[in-house]
Amino acid sequence: MLHFNPVYQKELRTTARSLRTYIIIFAFNGLLSLFGLFALYLTFEYQQNLGKNVQYSAILEIYSIITGVEFFLLMLVVPAVTAGAISGEKERQTLEILLTTRLTSGSIIRGKLLASISMMLILAFSSLPVIALVFSIGGITLRDLGEFMVLILETAIYLGSIGIFFSVLLKKSTSATVAAYGTVLLLSLGTFGGVWGIHFLTQMHLDHMAADATAVMQADIGNWMLLLFVNPIATFLSILKGQAGTGRSLADMYGRFGNLSPGLNEHWFLLSAGIQIAISILLLLLSARILNPLKGNKGKFKNNKIN
């Protein structure tokens, strides 16, 4: 891919030579280390100072804290990195020159996205020593760590495609960044709020209908819970629920708001990741079509050939 995509090659060289890259890596791992060491201190040293027994099962909570912080930082970094990928070229007035080359619009989009994903993978792999704190005690396997890295890659593609789409659609990097963050916020908190709102209204309707009844009726919104398939936070919680059992908030939401089939609960990560990748592919195809300078001139070219 490095050989066949000049955009990716150029972006990778620029990223590797930029001081901004090293500052991001240092800040990312610095914050992650602080949270990890603080969680380790609270779990062991602080408990011993209080005269309490140390629960070694708490190492799973440390894993959840470290991976949660890393996932949150990922959600903050990816839209900012990708939202200026194409709009930055527009502002520097270099996009027209790039479009006059033999590269297709799809190649340009893929190169920009791959460069952004590479940055996220560098951050993820550089954070492995911090995550490896949990291996000093046990409770987490290499398979769990591998699943988390797959989640990081999938989320980077998902959020990166959103940033690339708005970067193509809008002219200014600031506008693209705001739109990307707004969309991520809508997908993350908006879907949770939507599910809660639907359940609240349904419960109010049931309470009104059963005002004279002695039995209490619990609302079940059922398939409305599938809205969370597009929510990256719900996907992360499904990973924690399977690995450490600490993502119980998702399971609690299932039980409180609705009942899904056991197959959906068991394979939530695979299904949600598949849907998010499908959305990413659709956004990238739309971005390539919008970026294509010939999309609106095909009819003109045909008429010129006929004349």
UniProtKB/TrEMBL annotation:
Pfam families: ABC2_membrane_2. GO terms for molecular function: ABC-type transporter activity. The keyword Transmembrane helix applies. Keywords: Membrane, Transmembrane, Transmembrane helix. GO terms for cellular component: plasma membrane. The chain crosses the membrane at residues 21-42, 62-86, 120-142, 148-170, 177-201, 221-240, 268-291. This is ABC-2 family transporter protein. It comes from Anaerocolumna jejuensis DSM 15929.
